[in-house]
Fold this protein.
Amino acid sequence: MTATCHHHDRRRPGVVLGIRSCPRRGAAVVVVLLVLSAALVLTYAVLNSQSTALQIQRNSGRTLEAKQVATSGMLAAIRRMHQTNWAGVETTFTGSYGTSGSYEVSFTTGDAQIVPGSAEDHHWPYRVTLLAKGSVTNPDHPTVKATYEIEAVVQLVPRGLSATPSEWSSITQHTLYQLSTDDCRLEVPISIKGPVRFQSGIQLITSNSIGDSSARTRYAGDLNLMRNAGYPDYRPFNNTVKFPYSMNDSSMRSFLQTQLGVSTSDVSLTSTSLPASFSAPTGYQLYAGGKVYSPQSLPSSVNGGTYEASPRTNPLGLFVRNGSVDLKNNTTIRGTLIATDQVNIDGTNVTLEAVNLESIEGASQPSRLPVIYARNLALNATSGATIRGATLVLQEFQSISGDQATMNVTFTGNVAARRIRLRGRNGWSNASWPLLMTLFNLQANLLNGIKYFPVYAHALGYQAVPVVTLQPETEQVTEHCPDVGQPIYVPRSSDPGLRWQLIRWTDGV
């Protein structure tokens, strides 16, 4: 049966002659086509949405896996820092994770969150920033990777210090320590407080100071009496004097014990492991694998100004002169002064002060490096200085003769040297000491006479007040003398490597 479409035969506008049309049939076709198109679009959208969701899910999974890889790498890197085979800062530590993951961890000195000059700034050189990057490769697209980064900051936990010279423990038990059998000459007015140890014959208050034996004996004996009569203790020594009896006659022992009132002790001769000379260090490390810092070079003459440690460039405060250096007026150095030849204290208001190291875990007191490490040390005639910390002189420690009251130098800490020559003041050797003794004795019997010979001589211009004073440190501190060519901090003997404390962990940087 053929479907027909009834229509009027008469012609009317809008109808093409000779062609029959059926509006209902055409509309149905259009509707079907529209439905099919909509179904296809909807199907494509659904499929595309499912594909996108699946891809998002896969990407999310790979990102999570990349985080796990980064975490694993970070933990492995921190573990490596606790071992002796850690390569150190400015290196990278890499590894694989599973079949498609890998990590790379970098080590950088410092902590970006520490503000320069802040209270935390001294921690900066002891901190290391680790940046771990974990990567996971898409197996379907090898060039596509998911990555994740983690940052951590750790800080060194000091648990051990590097080795010191074999005699260092003995040096630090004495205010003045002689390293070898070279000359030892000590003239008044000086004051050395605390125990001392010499390894040679002692020349004490010689004819270069007091050229008459009776005057010398009376001067020393009165110094001992004065300390019990309200005067300061101006004796050359106030504690045990250790020296080899075999290199000194019995009169020296008697003079020390009887006139000066100090105890003495016989010691055997020992050699020193310290060199007679050395090369200036060009770099140093706080710990194995750490950043290499350069000491600050000094000119031949330092005319005022302050030099001190810088946490980012010179944390130990090492100031080096390859040769001799003159320290002029108003010079301050907070750190360690190293000179391959001679340090000349040649001005007034000179301050040298050692600085403390980071404390060793469990230690009851801080450690610090020597304040002076030099081949020679000279106190010039018009010098005025305060020196705090251990002073190590590989050759000669001397004071230059000068006018009365023109030198005033105080050492607080231990002083060690091979040759010791602390000279007296100008004019003493030319004085007529027998005449001075006669005049002193004549007036001493008067009602208002001066009872003590040093006080009488002082009134006539022969100063009794010490121009050089050596005294022990009063603060609780451990003096440390390392080889700066080796790292300062080392693992404790029971540790497999250095110890580190986690300061901060940041995911997704």
Q: What stands out?
A: Residues 23-81 form the longest helix (59 residues).
